[in-house]
Every structure is written in structure tokens, then in C-alpha cells.
């Protein structure tokens, strides 16, 4: 009987060993469970992410399926304290095993499995934990987790074959999610301590490694005391492992938990609006009319034009991999080299934020304080405000979610008017509060929006792109996505058409209010000042003062349909522009990107440069797939362009942009145009030097959100300072190739008047007191 029992035990053991061998062989070859391919094991984190580079060689972001903000660092860029803390706490025999620590595994099975000792420690090595993070889904049951374990052991062994110990540690730290959107050690070090990983001290390293056990449980922001206790456990493990002495342990264990915390996000970083624009733009499919709602047919036309004319639009679907499939930005490990200069991008973001967030926004809150319509203009009735808010409710995500859940209109109305816990944006940091959703919509609308872009007029290379002030909270891109009325910034296009038709900067026009009859309708343009009323003035003076009567006079001498055609040649793709006399005052809607591109015509001898956002794209082996070249078209002849330079320089030297000289002290050659639409709804500034063309728009989310005073609402106050602050920073940076002494390419002494009407009236005479100039 005893022999039978012993024989049975040996047979059972042989079956277990044989079965385990078969099972592990099957797992190894992928017959059981998921076994990643060798290529994935050789680069499990970054192989398939597309990296985005700036023109000066900086990685400004990645695209991947998880849309994480992970930026990987090498082992040599990681503090040795991090390595010591990780090994001491998670896998003290890390350097002695090949992926599986059978001693720790046996201890865990006996003490935890048989005796139920929770303090027995885990059996997973650092490599196994990495395998779990990379390839295991969250287990829904104990049985599923038990089945995952053997697969992770096999993957761990394979990882050990492909990587050195140092590389495995780097992979682990680069991959781990440290909470608060701090994915990877580089982002975690920056999020919690505002440091690089190499600069972390012992206490900081121990704090971050302590999170590896359970980042939510030991959240240093929410549970600082609990986190400090966990940090001290890590320090004790480092002492036991011999990495620090008893004296060092005693010193550090008494230290308080000190953070320099700021929340991070994959939406943060350099040029987030540009990165999102490129992701959508490059991944676009061939436009099909059936995919566009009836109210957005204009976008179908714009996208169709881009599909034909711009090789970057829909690039992923226009190009094919070796296997014939289209490219995927999230999966093909591409390298996209943008034209953005990281320094200029930073200067642009700083200029927009400094002026809008720190100056305009407080002034706007001050003007709106106590007004019943706030943040909407006082010109609206309460009924009109209610209609705007009702429309905003219907467009909100909360409304769509409630409607999809089957809520009645009464329930939806009650939900929007019932205070609830929420987090609100402020420029001083997010705040937690109680507020009714309807009030939160109004609150968010009270923040001003802005868009800014700068580009090289010769090549079209976009050097800076700021679609808004805070991508996390205001994701709508006001550079390429938003289109707003352009007001007086449209006038240079009209004047350019006039130059093409024989006018010169010195041609004379009557500075009087006139009524124009078109068909059965009459139109009488207004002007904001009556300076030199009744006189004959030069076109140079008229544009410098942004005089509406002179623009109307020019339009009466030209053809509105011809003007529409010219606008399209300038790169303004809006198909809904209606030819009319009033078009000369800018009621049409245009994007910042289109405006900046259009103004390159004046610097470039009449040749417009289309925006170029990407210079080249490489595959994951470094082979160049596409080299992008400048795209240009002739809009006006060189002589007309020269005359426009004279006109637009006059705006700075004696017109509405004069504060660039007397307030900001620019001494170099500048051409510019300010713009303000009805009721100050939209504020524009377009400015250019011989080397850079830049444009800025500032306004509210809705056209009825704006300053009620012209002093604050005009383009010269709202938008011009952003351009000025940006250019000041650019000129102050000696590493950038921009020179304030650069000259426009004009013949010596050129005034643009030799072939047209002239007058004894000095084009520079009669310049207004700039402080009194309002468009």
C-alpha cells in the first residue's frame, strides 16, 4: 500500500512536471495565451509611437494609442538612488536571476498561499512586473490572474534575453504610471518635484518608488502622511540592502514629505494645438459629401481643396506602406519633423499668455462685473442671452449624455440647474466648487480666446503656432479651426487689387461719407473719426488710418466679384464669401493661418507662400518617406507688392499701429494692419518684417462676448501687444537668425508713386494722434 502511494506521488509529480513543460512550451511559442512578437519585445514602449520633432531637433511630443505623455529617458539619465530604491524594495535579487526569482516565488507560495501571511512579500520580479504592465490586461477574477502568471514568467525570461539589467530597469521606470497623468519617470519627476530624473535625491527617489506598490493608495497629493510612511519603508529596504547606512537612514526618515507638485497631461508640452491639428490633418480621409452635415458644407469644400492641393492633408491615406496598407500615426513608429522652432514657440505662447491671461482677462472681468448680461455684451436683451445659453446647452457633452441615457427634457433642465461638484479652470489653477452646470457654461464662456501664428514668408515654414491659451480646458484651435470676421485686416487685399488696377499709394480719394446704390439696395459706410473730413487724401493715408470711406470708395471703383476672386488667390478658402460693397470692411470669416499666409504675398514680391507645417517624415528605420516643399502661387505682380509695402509700412510709421514705434520702441522696418469688427467682437493684428509674417486674433468664444469700450476692444489694444512681445523676445535671442535691422527688398528711395496720380499732399501728413485713433 505504501509503495502504491509513493509510486502515485512520483507519477503525479512526473505528470505535473511534464504538464508544466508542455504548458510552458506552448506559452513560449504562443499556442496558449498572448505572446508578443519578437519585434515588440525588442522595443516594447516606443517602437510604434510616432515622434514629433521641432525644427531645432527637440522632441515635442508623440502619438500613440494610449495618448500618454510619456517621454522615455535612458538608464544613464536616471538617478542611482532610483535604481537602488527600486531593486531594494521590489526585487533584491534582481541581478542574480534571469527573470523569475524561484526563492521569492517559493516563499510567496508557502507563506501567502499556505499560511496566509500578508507580510510575506510578493514573488514577482521587476522583470515580471514589467511584463505584466506591458502585456497583461486587468484580471477580472483570481483564476484569470492565476492563468496570467505563467505567461508573465515566460515573457520575463524573454525580456531578460533581449535586454540588459540596466535596460530593464529603464523600461520599468519609463513605463510605470505614477498617477496624476505622470506616466514614466521623467514626467513623474517633473510632476512631483519639478526635476529631471537624474537630479532626484534619496528622499524623492524613495517617494516615487514607494508609489510602485500602489500609486492610488500612496498618492502623495491626497494622502501625504500615508505616502511618507511608505517612503520610509523604502528607505528601510535600502538600508537592509546596504545601499545606505544606518546614519543616513536615521537622517532621511525624519524628513518631511516635500513636493513641488504641478499636474501634467499629454495635452501639455510644446505646441499642443499644433500637434493635435497635425494628428487630425494627416490622418484625414478623402472628403465625401455624405460625411458632412448640411450645415457644414463649407468645410467639405475647404477639405476638398486641401486634399488636392496640400500633400500633408490626409498624408496617411495618400501614402502606403510596403504591405499596401495606409500609415497609422499611432502604430508605425514614424518621425515627423515639423517646421516649428521650439524657442519661437515658447516665446509665442508666453506672449499670448502674458497679454491675454494677465492683462486682458482681468480687465474684462472688471468691465463685466455687476452687469446682468455678463459675460455677454450689454447690447443684448435678456431674451437673446437666453437663446445663446439654450444653444450652448444643446451643444454640450452633458446634454448629449443625458439624451442618450433617455432623460426627459424636464430631467435635463433640472440637471443643468442643480448645483453639483465640479472642477473649474482659473489662470491660478483649477478649483473644486459647487455650481449648476448652466452657470459653469456661462463661466467658461467668460474667458477670452486667442490664436497666433508666425511663418517664414520665403518658404512658408510655420515657426510658431498657438491655437489658444490652455489646451486642456479650451481645446478649440483658433489658428486653423476657428474662423472669425477679419474687419479692417481685409483692406490690404482690396488695396492690392487697386494697385493691380493702376492705383498707387499717392492716388487721391475723397474723405467723405457717401451712399452707394447697388441694384435696389443702398449702403452708407460709417467711420469712427472725421479727421480731415471733406478733403482729398492719399490712399496711403487712408490705409494708415484704416478709413472705411476710402475703402468703400475703392470698392466702388473696382468689381466685388473680382475682389472675391483675388481673396481666393490670397489663400482664403472660405467658399461662402459673398461679393458685395460691404466686403471691403471685412465681414467674411477667415482663419488666422489663412491670414498669415495671405500677408506673405506683400513681403515676397507678390508670391504667396502656403503654410508648411512639416518638412519631412521618416519611417521607423530612418528612411525618408516624404520631403515637403514650399507651395506658392502668384497673387499680384512685384510692382504692386512693392507699393503694398509702402502702404503697410505707413500703418506703422503714421497710422493705427504707430504704438509699435512710440510704445514698444521698434526701430526696424515693419508692415502691419490692425482690425476690429463691429462692437469689438473680433480684434486682429497682422504684422510682418522682412523675415517673419505673424498674425493674431483675440476675442470671445461667441461674437457677443467682448469689451464694450473701443479703448479696450480694438485690435491695437487686444492683439497688437502679442505681436510686439513675441518679436521683442525673438530679436533678443541671439541664437535665432532674425535681425531688427533687416530691410525690405525695395529700390533705394522707392515711394511707389511714380507711375500713378500724385499730389503735393505729403503721404505722411495728417497722421493722427495715435492715442486717439480707433478703427
Automatic annotation (TrEMBL):
Residues 452-691 form the Penicillin-binding protein transpeptidase domain. It comes from the Bacteria. Pathway: Cell wall biogenesis; peptidoglycan biosynthesis. InterPro entries: Beta-lactam/transpept-like (IPR012338), Glyco_trans_51 (IPR001264), Glycosyltr_51/Transpeptidase (IPR050396), Lysozyme-like_dom_sf (IPR023346), PBP_transglycosylase (IPR036950), PCN-bd_Tpept (IPR001460). One of its GO terms (cellular component) is outer membrane-bounded periplasmic space. The keyword Repeat does not apply. Residues 747-775 are annotated as: Disordered. GO terms for molecular function: penicillin binding; peptidoglycan glycosyltransferase activity; serine-type D-Ala-D-Ala carboxypeptidase activity. Signal peptide: none annotated. Its main location: membrane. Residues 57-238 form the Glycosyl transferase family domain. Pfam families: Transgly, Transpeptidase. It catalyses: [GlcNAc-(1->4)-Mur2Ac(oyl-L-Ala-gamma-D-Glu-L-Lys-D-Ala-D-Ala)](n)-di-trans,octa-cis-undecaprenyl diphosphate + beta-D-GlcNAc-(1->4)-Mur2Ac(oyl-L-Ala-gamma-D-Glu-L-Lys-D-Ala-D-Ala)-di-trans,octa-cis-undecaprenyl diphosphate = [GlcNAc-(1->4)-Mur2Ac(oyl-L-Ala-gamma-D-Glu-L-Lys-D-Ala-D-Ala)](n+1)-di-trans,octa-cis-undecaprenyl diphosphate + di-trans,octa-cis-undecaprenyl diphosphate + H(+); Preferential cleavage: (Ac)2-L-Lys-D-Ala-|-D-Ala. Also transpeptidation of peptidyl-alanyl moieties that are N-acyl substituents of D-alanine. One of its GO terms (biological process) is proteolysis. Residues 758-775 have a biased composition (Acidic residues). Keywords: Carboxypeptidase, Cell membrane, Cell shape, Cell wall biogenesis/degradation, Glycosyltransferase, Hydrolase, Membrane, Multifunctional enzyme, Peptidoglycan synthesis, Protease, Transferase. It is found in: Cell membrane. This is Penicillin-binding protein. It comes from Leyella stercorea.
Amino acid at each position: 500500500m505504501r509503495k502504491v502511494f509513493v509510486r502515485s506521488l512520483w507519477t503525479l509529480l512526473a505528470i505535473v512536471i511534464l504538464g508544466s513543460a508542455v504548458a510552458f512550451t506552448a506559452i513560449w511559442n504562443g499556442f496558449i495565451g498572448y505572446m508578443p512578437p519578437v519585434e515588440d519585445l525588442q522595443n516594447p514602449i516606443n517602437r510604434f509611437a510616432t515622434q514629433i520633432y521641432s525644427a531645432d531637433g527637440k522632441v515635442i511630443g508623440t502619438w500613440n494609442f494610449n495618448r500618454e505623455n510619456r517621454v522615455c529617458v535612458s538608464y544613464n539619465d536616471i538617478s542611482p538612488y532610483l535604481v537602488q530604491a527600486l531593486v531594494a524594495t521590489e526585487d533584491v535579487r534582481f541581478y542574480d536571476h534571469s527573470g523569475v526569482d524561484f526563492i521569492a516565488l517559493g516563499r510567496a507560495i508557502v507563506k501567502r498561499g499556505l499560511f496566509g501571511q500578508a507580510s510575506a512579500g510578493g514573488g514577482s520580479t521587476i522583470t515580471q512586473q514589467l511584463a505584466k504592465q506591458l502585456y497583461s490586461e486587468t484580471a477580472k477574477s483570481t483564476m484569470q490572474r492565476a492563468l496570467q502568471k505563467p505567461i508573465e514568467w515566460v515573457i520575463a525570461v524573454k525580456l531578460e534575453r533581449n535586454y540588459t539589467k540596466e535596460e530593464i530597469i529603464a523600461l520599468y521606470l519609463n513605463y510605470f504610471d505614477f498617477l496624476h497623468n505622470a506616466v514614466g519617470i521623467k514626467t513623474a519627476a517633473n510632476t512631483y518635484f519639478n526635476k529631471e530624473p537624474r537630479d532626484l535625491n534619496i528622499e524623492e527617489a524613495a517617494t516615487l518608488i514607494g508609489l510602485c506598490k500602489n500609486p492610488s493608495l500612496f498618492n502623495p497629493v491626497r494622502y501625504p502622511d500615508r505616502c511618507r510612511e511608505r517612503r520610509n519603508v523604502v528607505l528601510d529596504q535600502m538600508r537592509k540592502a546596504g545601499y545606505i547606512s544606518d546614519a543616513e537612514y536615521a537622517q532621511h526618515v525624519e524628513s518631511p514629505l516635500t513636493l513641488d507638485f504641478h499636474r501634467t497631461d499629454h495635452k501639455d508640452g510644446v505646441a499642443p494645438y499644433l500637434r493635435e491639428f497635425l494628428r487630425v490633418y494627416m490622418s484625414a480621409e478623402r472628403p465625401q459629401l455624405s460625411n458632412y452635415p448640411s450645415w457644414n458644407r463649407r468645410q467639405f469644400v475647404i477639405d476638398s481643396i486641401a486634399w488636392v492641393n496640400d500633400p500633408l492633408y490626409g498624408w496617411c491615406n495618400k501614402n502606403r506602406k510596403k504591405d499596401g496598407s495606409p500609415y497609422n500615426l499611432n502604430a508605425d513608429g514614424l518621425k515627423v519633423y515639423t517646421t516649428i522652432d521650439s524657442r519661437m514657440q515658447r516665446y509665442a505662447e508666453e506672449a499670448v499668455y502674458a497679454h491675454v491671461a494677465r492683462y486682458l482677462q482681468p480687465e474684462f472681468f472688471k468691465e463685466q462685473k455687476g452687469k446682468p448680461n455678463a459675460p455677454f455684451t450689454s447690447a443684448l436683451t435678456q431674451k437673446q442671452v437666453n437663446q445663446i445659453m439654450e444653444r450652448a446647452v444643446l451643444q454640450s457633452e452633458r446634454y448629449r449624455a443625458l439624451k442618450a441615457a433617455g432623460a426627459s427634457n424636464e430631467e435635463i433642465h433640472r440637471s443643468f440647474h442643480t448645483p453639483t461638484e465640479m472642477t473649474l479652470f482659473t489662470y491660478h489653477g483649477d478649483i473644486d466648487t459647487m455650481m449648476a452646470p448652466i452657470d459653469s457654461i456661462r463661466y467658461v464662456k467668460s474667458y477670452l480666446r486667442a490664436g497666433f501664428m508666425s511663418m517664414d514668408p520665403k518658404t512658408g515654414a510655420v515657426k510658431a503656432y498657438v491655437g489658444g491659451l490652455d489646451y486642456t480646458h479650451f481645446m478649440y484651435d483658433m489658428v486653423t479651426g476657428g474662423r472669425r470676421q477679419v474687419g479692417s485686416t481685409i483692406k490690404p487685399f482690396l488695396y492690392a487689387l487697386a494697385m493691380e488696377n493702376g492705383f498707387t499709394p499717392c492716388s487721391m480719394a475723397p474723405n467723405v461719407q457717401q451712399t452707394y446704390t447697388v441694384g435696389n439696395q443702398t449702403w452708407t459706410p460709417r467711420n469712427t473719426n472725421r479727421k480731415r473730413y471733406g478733403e482729398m487724401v492719399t490712399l496711403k493715408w487712408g490705409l494708415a488710418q484704416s478709413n472705411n470711406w476710402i475703402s468703400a470708395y475703392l470698392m466702388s471703383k473696382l468689381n466685388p466679384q473680382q475682389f472675391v476672386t483675388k481673396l481666393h488667390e490670397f489663400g482664403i478658402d472660405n467658399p461662402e464669401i459673398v461679393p458685395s460693397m460691404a466686403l471691403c470692411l471685412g465681414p467674411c470669416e477667415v482663419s488666422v493661418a489663412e491670414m498669415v499666409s495671405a500677408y506673405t504675398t506683400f513681403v515676397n514680391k507678390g508670391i504667396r507662400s502656403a503654410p508648411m507645417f512639416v518638412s519631412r517624415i521618416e519611417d521607423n528605420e530612418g528612411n525618408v518617406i516624404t520631403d515637403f516643399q514650399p507651395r506658392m502661387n502668384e497673387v499680384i505682380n512685384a510692382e504692386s507688392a512693392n507699393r503694398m509695402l509702402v502702404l503697410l509700412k505707413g500703418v506703422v510709421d503714421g497710422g493705427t499701429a504707430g504704438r509699435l514705434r512710440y510704445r514698444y520702441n521698434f526701430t526696424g522696418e515693419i508692415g502691419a494692419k490692425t482690425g476690429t469688427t463691429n462692437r469689438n467682437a473680433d480684434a486682429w493684428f497682422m504684422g510682418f518684417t522682412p523675415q517673419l509674417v505673424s498674425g493674431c486674433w483675440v476675442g470671445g468664444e461667441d461674437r457677443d462676448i467682448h469689451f464694450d469700450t473701443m479703448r479696450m476692444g480694438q485690435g491695437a489694444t487686444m492683439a497688437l501687444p502679442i505681436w510686439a512681445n513675441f518679436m521683442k523676445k525673438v530679436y533678443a535671442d541671439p541664437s535665432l537668425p532674425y535681425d531688427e535691422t533687416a530691410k525690405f527688398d525695395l529700390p533705394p528711395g522707392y515711394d511707389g508713386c511714380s507711375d500713378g496720380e500724385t499730389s503735393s499732399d505729403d503721404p505722411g501728413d495728417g497722421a493722427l494722434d495715435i492715442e486717439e485713433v480707433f478703427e
